[in-house]
Amino acid sequence: MFLRSNRKRTNGETYEYWTLVESVRTSRGPRQRTVATLGKLPGLDEDERAGWEEITRLLDGRGRPQADLFEEPCPPPPEWAQVDLAGVRVERVRDFGSVYVALALWRRLGLHRFFEDHVRSGREQIDWATVACILSIGSFCSQGSELALSDCWYRKTALDDLLGVDADDVYDNRLYRGLDELLPLREDLFTHLRERYESLFGARFEFLLYDITSTYFEGQCERNPQAQRGYSRDNRSDCKQVCIGLVVTPEGLPLAYEVFAGNRADVTTVEDIVDLMESKYGRAQRIWAMDRGMVSEDNLDYLRERDALYIVGTPKARLRKFETELLQADDWHAVETGVEVKLVDHPDRQGQERYVLCRSLARHEKEAAMLNRQRDRLRTKLLQIDASLKKRPQKLEAVGRRIGKWMGRNTAAEKVFEVEVIAESGLAVGLCIEEDESKLDWAQASQGAYLLRTNCQEADPVKLWKWYIHLTEVEDAFRTSKSDLGLRPVYHQREDRVQAHILVCFLSLVLWRSLEMWMKSKGLGTCARKALKELETIRSMDVILPVKDKAEVRLRLVAKPEKLAADLLAYLDLKLPSRPKQIENVVEKTGGQRSSCLGNIEF
Fold first, then answer.
1. Which of 593, 594, 585 is closest to 555 using CA atoms?
2. Are 476 and 421 members of one domain?
3. Is this prediction's pTM over 0.90?
4. For residue 126, what are the contacts with CB-CB under 8 A and spacing of at least 6?
5. Which residues does 449 contact at the CB level (< 8 Å), separation at least 6?
6. How far apart are CA 75 and CA 204, in angstroms?
7. How far apart are CA 145 and CA 56, in angstroms?
8. 304 and 219 housed in the same domain
């Protein structure tokens, strides 16, 4: 049986139609007999022709042809139906791209297996490993609170399809209990991440970066003894806060963290962090890079006692001891355009410690412009005070406060000026204003210069500078955590819940940094923020087709991504679900959990 194309010409017009024909045996030999006239079928494309050929095959009673062993299996036969085009509609549009990539990262890092092996199991409807995944992906997608995640964000994403967890089963109390289950696993998680970093990215841990930041609370936090007022890096001195010390690898991969009281001085946290890392990874020679806020002689003695190496920032006031070396034009090594370094011995610990003298052209221009601007402003204000005193003398205390106010607002220029109040009869009648040329010359000579201190035996100052400059990875991690991953503000009031919230933010930072490393390995740069913005354009949806003589057909589809997003997924070796299943209007429940409507997806 086969299809035959026919043409008929009437009154100068040509008409085409199709007939279904079968071959039969007769006494006069084989003959062809028309079974049905199918009428005019203009413009058949390949899919429509395949549909008619499928009808022919079914009518002939033939099965599907056997696929060659070395060929791809044949796709399932097409299903054809008459659809009311006026009734076609789209429902249940969900965010798909960003959560899909986050889930792929979660699995590549082996976090699904880690939590399955370590969390306790009981009579819970949804296992705590899945809850941990939901919490971390929510933070990865900038959901700062569990309440926002459960109330609106989760039901707007395709996670219910990908994880098989219905949106009604993700509510705040379940997420809060999930936080309680995660916190005891913190130390084991650090060990797991170290192993995964080593196997996935070839990371090494002889060189570690450490810095500290703070995050503030909304509320009084009376049940959290760590919530204290202190130096706020968020410019929220009105709020209580906690301090967070973060250890990362030179690649920027988060390795461990510790939470301190909000009024804890940075310099007092070093011993706790070093003890934490040594308890997990052994006491060995390890290079620590720290900012100058962590530096004290006690901390450096502590590191030397433990045979640890360090390269740390040093207060700029010590530059004065190296004025001769700074002004010399030789022995400088170019690191990059506009940056030069020089290695000099420690004046008191020769052979044991050295300084790396650095100067930056861009930093020099910035500090010079700042000094000139503040000199002009301070000189103008002091002359105005002098002119006003000559017209109307004032009390000495009031004049001292006025001078101190403007000196404090122009700290870069205050050391250059020497101001003396001229007094008569107990009143200030004028000012004697002078600029110290020697201090001005030193200020100009030291512009753009800074010092690093190290006990490493490395003789190349360029390498030492590059080791230290990796601290920008920690600073970038803090910016990402606060701006993109919802670390601030913290709404929890209990100490254990605050600790668990920070753990979830740490996990989301792990996903973020792993995405950047994944992109870097594929030659896609390291801007995860831009990549996620493109992936957010990918949506999943339900297409409802009103079918003749049947109930409505609901198809759950993933939209075809735009070219940039499609290229990004291709480079990352991620494939979107290609054959979504046809589902009923009411999705069945299996085993107390919602079954995935997008099938089993391999990452």
1. 585
2. no
3. no
4. 165, 169, 174, 593
5. 316, 319, 326, 357, 358, 359, 360, 364
6. 47
7. 59
8. yes
Number of domains within the chain: 3
Give the whole-angstrom CA distance, residue 550 versus residue 538: 31
- Regarding whether 470 and 432 lie in a shared domain, the answer is no
- Structural domain including 211 reads 203-317+456-491
Among the listed residues 147, 124, 119, 121, the one whose alpha carbon sits nearest the alpha carbon of residue 135: 147
- HSE (side-chain half, CA atoms, 13 Å) at 116: 6
* Same domain as 306, residue 367: no
pLDDT digits (tens, 9 = 90+) for 467-515: 998 888 888 888 888 888 878 889 898 999 999 999 999 999 999 999 9
Residues 6+ apart with CB under 8 A from 207: 249, 250, 286, 287, 289, 467, 470
Beta-strand runs (E) in 107-182: none
d(CA 464, CA 454): 8
User: Would residue 516 be called left, alpha or beta, if left means φ above 0 and alpha means ψ between -120 and 50 degrees?
Assistant: alpha
Amino acid identity, position 101? V
CB atoms within 10 A of CB 292: 16
Token pair recorded at residue 534: 């493109």
Asked, for residue 390, whether it belongs to a domain, the answer is yes
Residue 142 confidence (pLDDT):
84
pLDDT, one tens digit per residue, over 143-196 is 878 899 999 999 999 999 889 899 999 999 999 999 999 999 999 999 999 999
Q: Is residue 190 part of a domain?
A: no
Rounded to whole angstroms, the Cα distance separating 422 from 429 reads: 6
